[in-house]
Each structure stands twice: as C-alpha cells, then as structure tokens.
Amino acid sequence: MAGGQLMLRRKMLKPGEDIYSRKAPATYTYQDMFIGNLLLLEGFTFQLVWPDDYALGYMELHPDQFPMSNPQLVMSKFRECVKPVYKQFVARFISTTKLIYTKFRDAIRDVMGDKITDQEILTLARRYATPLEKCQLPQESLRRLAQDMLRRELYDDFERLRESFLYKDPGKAGTVTRRSAYSTLLAARLPIHLDLINIILDTLAEIDGKNEKFVNYDRLLHFFNYKDNPSTPIAPINIGKNMSWLAVGRPQQMGPPECMKVDISALVDDLHLEEELKEQSQ
C-alpha cells in the first residue's frame, strides 16, 4: 500500500462503533496519537512506536492538547509515585549520573509500573537528555532562525521572561545555570524548537571555575528580542520541515531512543524531595 493511502484525510472510526446509531460514532483524534497506543484501522492493527523529532517538539510546545508531552505534569506524577521509595531510587544511581534511554525507561517503570505511558517516559527522557556538543553554526544564523520562530508566533513577552530569570537569580549575579535557563524557557512555553533552544544555550553558555555552565540571561534575551534587537529576516521556510540536522549541519539531537542519554542526577535534583523528607522526619 502506498504511503498515506490508508487514512488519507478521512475520519477513522474506533473499533466497535455503530455507524447506524443515533449517537455520532467515536473517531480517532490527536489525543489517541501517543507512543505505545494501538490503533485498529481498516482491520489492520498498528502500534505507534516512535514519532519524528518535529512531532515530539510540536506536542511539547502544545502541552494543553498533549498532556503526555507536558514535562511538568509528568514530573509531578512521577514525584508522587517515587516519594515512598525515594531513598532506594536514589541509592540505585548514587554512582551514576547518566543512563542510556533503555535503562532510564526500566528505572521509571520499576517505580510506576503501568501508571505511566511510553510517551510520558520519553517526555521525561527528552527533558533531561544530556546536552549536545556545541553547534558550529554562527550565532547570527541561530539568532535569525530563533527570532523568525518568535515573530511567526507573535511572541513578545520578554519582560515577563526576564522576571522569571530574576526569580531564578536571587543573588542578582546576572547569570543562571544552563539547566535553569533551559527549564525557564521551557516553562515560558517559548515557541522555539527544543533542539534549537539547546543549541543556543550551549552556544551562549560560559563555563566557570567549577566546570559548570552558566548563561547570562540579559544576553540571551537580547539574542531573542526581535523588537529591540532585530536580525536580518530569513527567507520564508517551513520551520517544521527544515528544522532537521541536515539543514543545520549537525547530527540529529535525539536519534533512536537507544542512543539517548538521560541525566538522572538532574531529574533527582528537580524532585526536591530531600528537604521535604528531612522536614517530615524531624
């Protein structure tokens, strides 16, 4: 069967629906499109295994429509499940900071069992995937691409974004850790491809004496602000289609799940359970 000919643009009925019922039969929607789900289409059973990186990025940019791709919701769900076994969970990885995806998936499954879907596990894995090597693209090319994405979506809430960075910088040093910068941009739902955000942060980050990466957030905001600091407009392109690593001259960020590495120590830190458990024990 030729690609795209099974569904075309038709609405596909769910199994067991009666087309002659007075009630409109249920059809598959985007909410049924998540990793691990089984779809019965025209007598054929399909399992959704692995979407492309653009599809995952799109879902993460629209968490209201795709709650399984909302890292905050998934993290909250995991936090509640891991709380009773937190000490044992941490002890498993006391000498390990990074896990390959399959081991990370198994570790999450050991805690949550069937209470979490493959899609939600992947959302956590992408949230804590180890940063890539620095991009070789000129900063101006990255800035033009980022500003084009922001301009297309009419995003201009840079003042509120700066307030979020100030909250993460109580000492008023003017910098935050790379990890904190990423989580701040993610929470702000910046309409920029997640892979591009990682590339920009790695490009702008500076390393201190303790070998930790920091980002000057005023410089980052200046980089994004197409109103006060506009770059030369790029030629109109389909961002989704062209945001591939062939287009930007580097390997794909995530690749197959077996190749992904997850920073388990960062996930443990973001659980913030250490202090809570100490208070409960006192």
From TrEMBL:
Keywords carried by this UniProt record: Cell projection, Cytoplasm, Cytoskeleton
GO cellular component, one term: axoneme
Coarse class of the protein's main subcellular location: cytoplasm
Keyword Cytoplasm: yes
Subcellular location: Cytoplasm, Cytoskeleton, Cilium axoneme
Keyword set includes Cytoplasm: yes
Ranges of residues in domain DM10: 1-63
Highest taxon in the source lineage: Eukaryota
PROSITE patterns referenced in this protein's UniProt entry, alphabetically: DM10
Name the record gives this protein: DM10 domain-containing protein
